[in-house]
Design a protein that fits this description.
Elements: H1 39-46, E1 61-62, E2 74-76, E3 102-104, E4 110-112, E5 116-121, H2 125-141, E6 144-147, H3 151-154, E7 159-161, E8 164-167, H4 169-179, E9 187-192, H5 194-199, H6 201-208, E10 213-217, E11 228-231, H7 234-242, E12 246-248, H8 254-262, E13 268-271, H9 279-292, E14 296-301, H10 306-319, E15 323-327, E16 332-333, H11 338-343, H12 348-364, E17 372-375, H13 381-390, E18 395-400, H14 401-425, H15 429-436, H16 440-447, H17 456-478, E19 492-494, H18 497-503, H19 513-520
Parallel strand pairs: 5-6, 5-18, 6-9, 9-10, 10-14, 14-15, 15-17, 17-18
Antiparallel strand pairs: 1-16, 2-19, 3-4, 7-8, 11-13, 12-13
Helix pairs in contact: 2-4, 2-14, 2-17, 9-10, 10-12, 13-17, 14-15, 14-17
Pfam families: Glu_synthase (PF01645)
GO molecular function, one term: glutamate synthase activity
Organism: Desulfacinum infernum DSM 9756
């Protein structure tokens, strides 16, 4: 069987005329005269534009490849005996009593009210448009929000002198949106790639904007190249070419300009450069960031080959990184090459199992093991439990990229509709939000008159996290684990032999054998 679905996808707005051949994805009978609704046919007209999910700037995309083993191949173990973390008393060990808070940072001083954070909300249009909703949602939920790469470089109003950014209204907007609602839990992380480092973004955000958590980026689970966006105008393409980005096709060429004006080219692509990891260079950059004033330094790495994961974990250990985010294949993106998203890298479960083995080896040597976060295609409370258990005791948080943005966008959409309805009826938006959102009353009680200032998307994201919290509390109570730190690998079971083999988690029919023998004699 094929795990992939080549040549047609909702992500590229393509389909096939008849049932396709499973390997090539081409229609079993390719008809001369067909207009070509498949990716091959659309590529005959639009060429390289068809590499990416569409429509750009309005969607996020997630891979649709099935992998031999994913989190559904594990189930959560419940028990009817005892309680860990509270008294084994039915009046005490209730599911609302479960503590879902967590800590990251080398010294555990970054506290989160819930063990999740956003993916990198970077320089794509959809990230820029939805930033305030997500930043405020993170602040009021007590979790982390990540300002992704290229924000300063993509800011049309950025002031750049001698190749260094001295002012970026867009980055200032991003940071201030979070800080206005920050309540002591969670935080804002700013991320940098090659171009950001050249532009002096770390110095700018740390020294001038007071950002405390800075993230180095090696990659992400959705692609193994630098970040990219689409540019709709020649002027914008020329501006970013001047700022040092790779822009394709080259907007300085007369032939390209002529093709754009004629309509043959409808957009340009801005690409970031590939980062080149070097052990000594990594340690020096971490130390430099700390000297600049970063209180915490984190690392984000993608689904590269196993030896690169070993590098990430070992280097992070030596540098005493405050958080290592490991992003598996099969995750999501604002814009990544579609086939790359589906066909490269190590899927999340496999990557986490490798990471666990490597962390165990370091711990056996007495080495520092950084707090780890797992990302890549996760969205609901059972995913959180399983990912934390599979990597216990090292996994402290889960990155929910597309899921967080989905909640924010849906909240924003319904908030806009409700605001229009209230305006027509001559009633307040606050009144509408109280009737729209299940968490409205508790946020009103908490924020008083400021409740009306919370963006609807932020309320949607808070509501989603609130649902995750109760769902996770219920699962943890069923496993009789009343704080996150008590979840361990014994709390899940493998449903297939293959899942057991790659993870070291017992196969369901082999689980608890010793205890069973003791009971049955």
């Amino acid at each position: 069987m094929s795990y992939s679905r080549p040549n047609r996808s909702a992500a590229t707005l393509t389909t096939t005329r008849v049932e396709p051949a499973p390997i090539s994805g081409i229609c079993v009978t390719c008809l001369d005269g067909c207009e070509g609704p498949c990716e091959i046919g659309r590529s005959a007209l639009k060429g390289r534009e068809m590499i990416y999910p569409q429509p750009f700037g309005k969607i996020t995309a997630g891979a649709d490849k099935d992998y031999p083993v994913d989190f559904s191949h594990f189930n959560i173990q419940g028990t009817c005996v005892g309680a860990v973390g509270v008294d084994a008393d039915p009046d005490v060990a209730t599911f609302p009593a479960v503590d879902c808070t967590t800590e990251v940072g080398a010294d555990g001083s970054i506290q989160l009210d819930f063990p999740v954070f956003t993916g990198a909300v970077g320089s794509t249009d959809i990230a820029r448009i939805n930033w305030e909703d997500m930043a405020v949602g993170a602040a009021i939920s007590g979790v982390l929000v990540v300002a992704g790469e290229n924000i300063c470089g993509m800011d049309p109003q950025a002031e750049i002198k001698n190749g260094r950014v001295v002012k970026s209204p867009e980055m200032e907007r991003r940071v201030s949106a979070f800080k206005r609602w920050y309540d002591g839990k969670g935080g804002i992380i700013v991320q940098a790639n090659v171009e950001d480092t050249k532009l002096g973004v770390p110095e700018y955000v740390i020294e001038k904007l007071g950002v405390e958590i800075f993230e180095l980026k090696w990659g992400q689970g959705a692609k193994d190249i630098g970040g990219e966006v689409k540019l709709p105008t020649l002027e914008r393409a020329l501006q970013l070419k001047e700022r040092g980005y790779i822009v394709l096709p080259d907007p300085t060429r007369p032939a390209v300009q002529k093709a754009f004006q004629a309509g043959g080219i409808s957009e340009f692509e801005r690409h970031s450069r590939l980062g080149m990891v070097d052990e000594e260079g990594f340690y020096k950059e971490v130390e430099r960031l700390r000297k600049v004033g970063a209180k915490y330094v984190t690392l984000k790495t993608g689904a590269y080959r196993p030896v690169d994961l070993a590098r990430a974990i070992k280097y992070s250990s030596e540098a005493k990184i405050d958080l290592l985010t490991i992003d598996g294949a099969g995750g999501g993106t604002g814009m990544s090459p579609w086939r790359m998203m589906n066909e490269w890298g190590i899927p999340t479960v496999y990557l986490e199992c490798l990471a666990y083995e490597m962390c165990e080896r370091l711990r056996a040597k007495g080495a520092y093991v950084p707090p780890i976060a797992i990302a890549g295609g996760l969205s609901l409370e059972d995913h959180l439990f399983k990912a934390i258990a599979l990597g216990a005791p090292y996994v402290k948080a889960i990155c929910l990229g597309r899921a967080m943005m989905t909640a924010a966008m849906v909240g924003k959409t319904h908030g806009k509709l409700m605001a229009e309805k209230m305006q027509q009826q001559g009633r307040s938006v606050e009144e509408g939000y109280l009737s729209l959102f299940a968490v409205g009353a508790q946020l009103k009680e908490r924020y008083g008159d400021d409740f009306a200032k919370i963006p609807a998307g932020a309320i949607g994201m808070y509501s989603y996290i609130d649902r995750l919290r109760q769902g996770l509390q219920q699962l943890m109570a069923g496993a009789r684990k009343f704080a996150l730190k008590y979840i361990d690998r014994n709390d899940i079971v493998a449903l297939t032999r293959e899942a057991a083999e790659i993870s070291g988690i017992p196969y369901v029919m082999d689980c608890d054998r010793e205890e069973i023998e003791k009971i049955l004699g």
